[in-house]
Amino acid sequence: MNRLTSKLQNLKENNKKALVAYLVAGDPDLDTTLDLMHLFVDSGVDVIEIGVPFTDPIAEGPTIQKAHDRALKNNISLKMILELVDKFRETNTETPIVLMGYLNTFISHIDLVQSIGENSADSILVVDVPGELNLQTYGITNPNINTISLISPTTKDDRVESIAKNSTGFIYYVTLRGVTGSSNLNIEEIKNNIQKIQQYSDAPTMAGFGIKSVEDASTLAACSDGIVIGSSIVEMIADESKSKEFGRIGEYLREMKTAIS
Amino acid sequence: MTFSNSNFPDKEGFYGEYGGKFVPETLMYALEELENTYNKLKDNKDFIDEFYKDLSHFVGRPSPLYFAQRLTDHYKSGSIWLKREDLNHTGAHKINNTVGQILLAKYMGKKRIIAETGAGQHGVATATVAARLGLECHIYMGAEDVRRQSLNVYRIKLLGAHVHPVDSGSATLKDALNEALRDWVTNVDDTYYIIGSVTGPHPYPMIVRDFNSVVGKEVIEQSKDLFGKMPDAVVACVGGGSNAMGIFHPFIDIQETRLIGVEAGGEGVSTGEHAAPLNDGTPGVLHGARSYLMQDESGQVKDTKSVSAGLDYPGVGPEHSWLKDIGRAEYVAVSDDDALKAFHEVTELEGIMPALETAHAFAYLEPLMKELDSSANVVVNVSGRGDKDINTVAEIDGIEF
Question: How many contacts, defined by CB atoms under 8 Å, are there between A and B?
Answer without folding.
Answer: 110
